Amino acid sequence: MGTFTDTPHDRGRASEIEYTVRRSTRARRVRVNVRAHTDVEVVLPAHASERAAAAAVRELAPWIERRLSEGRRALAHVAERAGTVPYLGTPLELIPQPGRTRAHRRGEQLFVPEGDHRPAVERLYRRLAREEVATRLDAAVANVGTSYNGLSIRAQSTRWASCSAKGAMSFNWRLLLAPEPVLDYVVWHEVCHLDIRDHSPRFWALVEQRCPGWREQRDWLRRYGATLVL
What we know:
By secondary structure, the protein is α/β, with parallel strands linked by helices. It is built from six helices and eleven strands. The chain has helices at 50-59, 61-79, 118-144, 180-193, 201-210, 214-224, and strands at residues 10-14, 17-24, 31-35, 39-45, 84-87, 90-97, 104-106, 109-113, 151-154, 161-163, 169-172. Strands 1-2-4-3 form a four-stranded mixed beta sheet. The protein has a four-stranded mixed beta sheet with strand order 5-6-8-7, covered by helices on one side. Strands 9-11-10 form a three-stranded mixed beta sheet, covered by helices on one side. β5 (84-87) and β6 (90-97) form a beta hairpin. α3 crosses α4 (180-193) and α4 packs across α6. The protein is globular, with a radius of gyration of 20 Å.
């Protein structure tokens, strides 16, 4: 991670898509981000023309619209939860309590601070994600006779998990918002990367051998991944 020196955000519009512009001394090319699935940001190198931002948005319009549509569906999905939050397929009832600062799970109830409870719930889910992932990961590598080199829980914006060349594992805590078989699939996916680094046919054959039915879980993530937000 580095330190960015940015100019203030400017606003623009291209092909009826509103976006903000941020200049970065670290940027080497124009980059378009759809943040939280609802906000479009164009990152420009320090000396790039403003026209480059509009051109990038026009070029990527279909992708941007798709991500924005996913964001709208995610917001609607969250609104439909009606006072609950999912935990590996189980809806937990949110119970706000005055004076509480931390989230605490008791069975199918989740006691949370009054007001915006999301930061407290995220902290709890990050902690529980380490336990849930480590249990599955340890069992998987023991089953196939391999090993990994460390586990981190993060909030990646573009991926659900990763396995480094040295076997370091990283998982997105938001996987706890998905059904349990989805988490199981993602764990096996990364364990298979300990043996095969790429996504070649050999890799997918290994996933099939170790995690039958993986396609259904992968497709679920592709379809509903945007809804895995608090």
